[in-house]
Amino acid sequence: MAANADIGSATTLLEALRDPAAVIDAATRVVAANAAWRALLPAARLEQPLALALRAPDVLDAIARVQQGGAAETVAWSERRPFIHYHEVHIAPVDIAKLGRCVALTLRDLTEIRHTERMRVDFIANASHELRTPLASLLGFVETLQGAARDDAGARERFLGIMGEQARRMKRLIDDLLSLSRIEQNEHRAPQTAVDLAGVARQVTEGLASLAAENRIRLALEAPEALTVTGDRDELVRVVENLIENAIKYSADDDGAERPVEIDLKDIEHRAVLRVRDHGPGISREHLPRLTERFYRVDAGQSRAKGGTGLGLALVKHIVARHRGRLSVDSTPGDGATFTISLPLRENIK
């Protein structure tokens, strides 16, 4: 009875914990567990050996060491379900009447922390790489102008033009990085201003008309007189501008033929739905899930040649998320791509 009472007390205590936790007896059986543990390891049933459900030699070895009189330990454990999840497992000795020396296990999920760390490392590496290339180019031309081309007027004019373009590339990248940082800081704050998305679409389409003409693209806009959402006008201009500008740049071809880019804005089920459809080469399916990652490019060389920073769709994703909206991409190789954003209409914001 004493053992049952102690196990009942242990179970009550474990249920108060948010992290998965369990008590393992000297025979490595699970004798108590909380709801979080049962949700994470449904196969680890009470009164059954933990090894039947947890295939983690490092954890099981640490349990054995602590049960044999060792000090508390913390070990790492990861599993794939279907993506890799990382956990920190803390194993500490506990004494329960008539059960002898047991151990208490608590699991801390480190998946999000690891993912954030990986993103930070990748971000720094990618940003450094993107800045290093134009910076190296600038330094090389400066050294050339200070040396061999000091008195060559033709070379000086040509090099200064290239240097200006490289400097503008760095400025675009830094501007996008700052914009992305600012948007992420405010992502939890929903905008409160009324914005006519139809007016934004018309303004951006008119503003990009000259770029479209240069690339032999015909912009076709279909939108109502007005369609009001709650948002930040400057950020929504950035979203529409990025989507239409990408459609212009990546659907242009050298065959001399004019290609359409269709911009369609409608009220669908009380949501403002904007679609930007191009008739370019399209995007292979394996690239679609990663398009909004920072610095991810389907064709890095083409993107840089067209002035892309690799951050445009990441900005779109975060702005749309801040506006409580949705972004989707549909594409078939050889048949163009359609980018769709859906935002709640103003009267439906709660």
**What name does the CATH topology of the largest domain carry?**
Heat Shock Protein 90
- Kindly report the name of the CATH homologous superfamily of the largest domain: Histidine kinase-like ATPase, C-terminal domain
**Uncertain stretches:** none
* CATH architecture identity of the largest domain: 2-Layer Sandwich
Description:
The radius of gyration is 29 Å and the shape is elongated. It is 44% helix and 24% strand. Helix 6 crosses helix 8 and helix 8 (233-251) packs antiparallel against helix 10 (312-322). It has a five-stranded antiparallel β-sheet with strand order 2-1-5-4-3. It has three domains: 2-109, 2-Layer Sandwich (Beta-Lactamase), CATH 3.30.450; 111-185, Orthogonal Bundle (Helix Hairpins); 190-350, 2-Layer Sandwich (Heat Shock Protein 90), CATH 3.30.565. It has helices at 2-15, 35-40, 57-67, 111-146, 153-185, 197-207, 209-214, 233-251, 300-305, 312-322, and strands at 21-24, 30-33, 73-80, 84-96, 100-109, 193-196, 217-222, 228-231, 259-268, 271-277, 326-331, 337-344.
Topology:
Layout: H1 2-15, E1 21-24, E2 30-33, H2 35-40, H3 57-67, E3 73-80, E4 84-96, E5 100-109, H4 111-146, H5 153-185, E6 193-196, H6 197-207, H7 209-214, E7 217-222, E8 228-231, H8 233-251, E9 259-268, E10 271-277, H9 300-305, H10 312-322, E11 326-331, E12 337-344
Parallel strand pairs: 7-9
Antiparallel strand pairs: 1-2, 1-5, 3-4, 4-5, 6-8, 9-10, 10-12, 11-12
Helix pairs in contact: 4-5, 5-10, 6-8, 8-10
